[in-house]
């Protein structure tokens, strides 16, 4: 009898200790998962645009979509110099981040051959420290200032002295409308009665109580889960 009473009172204590240990283990597991996610976030969040702004930082026309897909998280190579061979071929010298130089020959360059940018506009498309070889100031077409920003004459130069005078009033030769007698006016008013236009105010939409109930249920569920974990 005494042993049965002792086991009856000791079993709940054992159950509570096991439950407390499982709760502590669950907390440690959740904290480890959160720490792992926070540590992996900067690694997987290093996109092309972030990498470019962190390392390269000066190329104004950078577009992440133009880069290949296998360099995710890596900055693009740095342009060292541009050497113009002729009107349709350009040699680009590129340096990767491992200090190795690469030379690439580009035919029908987009900015030089197809768009035919001026030297001033071409320098804006590349970093400041890039070296241009074979590009004279007059080798590329330059947009003239008169065509780029034409000067419009002032308003006083366009207007003539006759334009500043007010326009004369137009003469109307049509006879004035004669007033109708009151009897005819009353007949017209009786023939065409005015139609009443009914206007309805927009009705307010009723608040759905189901949404409020689901929101309260979700809030109670989250609070209960937090209380069980804590």
Automatic annotation (TrEMBL):
UniProt keyword annotations, A-Z: Membrane, Transmembrane, Transmembrane helix
Transmembrane region(s): 208-227
Stretches the record annotates as Disordered: 156-193
Composition-biased stretches (Basic and acidic residues): 170-181
Superkingdom of origin organism: Bacteria
Record's protein name: Uncharacterized protein
């Amino acid at each position: 009898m005494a042993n049965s009473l002792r086991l009856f009172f000791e079993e709940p204590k054992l159950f509570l200790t096991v439950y407390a240990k499982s709760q502590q283990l669950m907390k440690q597991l959740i904290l480890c998962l959160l720490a792992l996610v926070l540590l992996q976030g900067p690694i997987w969040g290093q996109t092309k645009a972030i990498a470019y702004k962190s390392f390269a930082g000066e190329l104004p026309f950078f577009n992440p979509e133009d880069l290949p897909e296998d360099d995710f998280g890596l900055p693009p190579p740095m342009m060292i110099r541009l050497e113009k061979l002729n009107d349709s071929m350009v040699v680009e010298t590129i340096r990767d981040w491992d200090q190795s130089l690469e030379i690439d020959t580009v035919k029908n360059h987009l900015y030089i051959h197809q768009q035919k940018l001026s030297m001033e506009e071409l320098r804006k498309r590349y970093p400041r420290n890039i070296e241009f070889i074979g590009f004279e100031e007059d080798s590329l077409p330059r947009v003239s200032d008169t065509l780029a920003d034409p000067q419009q004459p002032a308003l006083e130069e366009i207007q003539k002295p006759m334009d500043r005078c007010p326009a004369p009033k137009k003469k109307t030769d049509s006879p004035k409308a004669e007033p109708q007698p009151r009897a005819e006016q009353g007949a017209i008013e009786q023939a065409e009665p005015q139609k009443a236009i009914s206007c309805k105010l927009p009705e307010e939409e009723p608040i759905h109580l189901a949404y409020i109930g689901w929101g309260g249920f979700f809030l109670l569920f989250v609070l209960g889960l937090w209380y069980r974990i804590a």
